[in-house]
Amino acid sequence: MRAWLLRYFSAGILFLAAVSNVTGQPAAPTPGNASFRVFFRGESIGTTDVSLTRADDGWLIRGSGRLGTPLNLNIRRVEIRYDDMWKPRAVSIDLSSPDETVSVKSAFDAGTARTEILRNGQTTNGSSAVAPDTIVLPNLVFSAYEALAARLSMASPGTELRGYIVPQAEIAIRLESVTDETIQTTERTIAARRWHLTFMNPGAPLPADVWVDRGRLVRFDIPSQSITVAREDIASVGSRIVSVTRANDEQLFIPAAGFNLAATISKPASVAGRLPAIILVAGSGPVDRDELVAGIPVFGQLAESLANAGYLVVRYDKRGIGQSGGRLAAATITDLADDVLSVVQSLRKRKDVDSNRIAVFGHSEGASIGLIAASREKRIAALILAGAVATKGVDLILEQQQHMLEQSNLPQAERQKATALQKNILDAVVTGRGWDQVPPDVRRQVDTPWYRSLLIFEPLPFFRKVRQPILVVHGELDRQVPIHHADELAQLARARSKAGAADYVKLPALNHIFVPATTGEVSEYAGLKDRTVSPQLATVVIDWLQKNLPAVPARR
Asked: For 281, how many CA atoms within 13 A lie in the half-sphere containing its CB?
């Protein structure tokens, strides 16, 4: 995991505060209680409770919670006091982990925070200059984010905030953009605002998303760390965020391996008869049907273009995510390929689908999943590999780590140490041996069926079994899966004997999610000015499909 959430100072817990310089009066949220569930890689690992009270002289936030593996933190008590203008007055927090007990008390006065930290019976004191209107956000104490939600109700995109890390560090916090989103629950529809933020950590910038409903916190996401904090009413399987919708979209549940996959079908507005279909398969992590990345609904936008071109398009919540059943943490990528085959079977039974013209579009890890599915199901008529990996998963992880280390300010000795540890971790996951060389908390994160299946996956054996036409499409600025992977995949596709067409298209100036970018780095995602998947992607895919699975263009 990256620094912001799991870094410690002096063997203790790191705390973060954000500074607001937004003008205007902060919004008055509705006082009351709320409960949240905390998820890691789609699995519930804990809860947190919060009470927001309005007093004559300001606001009081109280909270508690417990986080299981891999965070392992007991938040026994939280109390944060603000004045009427949401300027902090005092904070008192009691925490414990398997290794230590920590109490933190801070008082704020005239731009100074005076802090006392009691750790395992040892007391340290310090003071730091802070902005008078600091928002106190102790690390992993998610109840404190109610104050951030209240401030964001009066914020504007483009603001750069400052963050104070008790007791020594200060970072910039960029408020990148805001979008309106609808969240559907089993009981009601919530009109929320989603804020895209970037915490500018010394090691690497950390994008995050905050959903706000009438001044109260609804959800907090750190996509790069697969951590989600969701209010109880939106945390159930029956809830989903609606990012993109068409007038004639069809919502359905597709039977899978003992559970249902929740899906959306988008169709042309005015074309009847049996249509060619395309299944969109999302990348790694707890991804929903719209493949929402840094607030950009990659699949939601792509489905719109494909449907307008005359195709029936299916996108679905991954198992255990959104409204789909099942458990993501227990699934291998082969299991996820089974889900694709379940969608294929469902489409073949529909009267509006030509069962001989079903294609699969896989993005990132979804391309690997699609490749497995196509190798097992010959009735998949065409395969599109977008941002796909050409090497073994182990090699990709090491490549990505080296790229991150090259961007960091770590000394060479620290880089070598990190690389050695990473190799020990990967070897232990693959072989099941050498776990004594891996920290226990790291093992709890990586010793999963999914991660092992990712590490041992290699495309070459599956290419040998796939006879369908293949399109490889890749953004030239992709830094998550560098462009050389696409070069190698194109060679594998063209080297097949007695197989369909193999085409390769590089898209200039596009990143891993096919959005115009400057650097292509993940840290740039939240700050991207263009929040739209490039039309180049849809054009390339549609032109290729028209050659291999022709459709009647829809009339608009």
From this structure: 31
What is the per-residue pLDDT across 350-401, written as a single tens digit (0 to 9) for each? 999 999 999 999 999 999 999 999 999 999 999 999 999 999 999 999 999 9
The residue type at 233 = D
**Torsion sign across C-alpha atoms 409, 413, 418, 419:** positive
At residue 231's C-alpha, the angle toward residues 226 and 232, to 5°, is 110
> Phi, psi at residue 438, to the nearest 5°?
-120, 130
Burial code (b: 16+ CB inside 10 Å, e: under 16) for 28-49 equals ebeeeebebbbbbbbbebbbbb
Under a CB-based contact definition with an 8 Å cutoff, are residues 521 and 479 in contact? yes
Q: What's at 545, amino acid-wise?
A: L
Which amino acid is located at 413 in the chain? Answer: A
Return the bridge partners of 473, or none: 386, 505
Q: Is the peptide bond before 167 cis (omega within 30 degrees of 0)?
A: yes
CB 481 within 8 A of CB 514: no
pTM for the model stands at 0.75
Q: β-strands 43-55, 58-67: how paired? A: antiparallel
What digits encode the pLDDT tens for the residues 175-223? 998 988 888 787 788 889 999 998 887 777 888 999 999 999 999 998 8
Tokens describing residue 135: 């928002």
pLDDT digits (tens, 9 = 90+) for 332-354: 999 999 999 999 999 999 999 99
* 76: three-class secondary structure by DSSP: strand
* 464: number of Cβ within 10 Å: 14
CA-to-CA distance for 483 and 508, rounded, in angstroms? 11
Query: What is the radius of gyration, based on Cα positions, of the chain?
Result: 24
The amino acid at 64: S
Neighbours of 402 (CB within 10 A): 14
Say whether pLDDT at 410 is over 90.
no
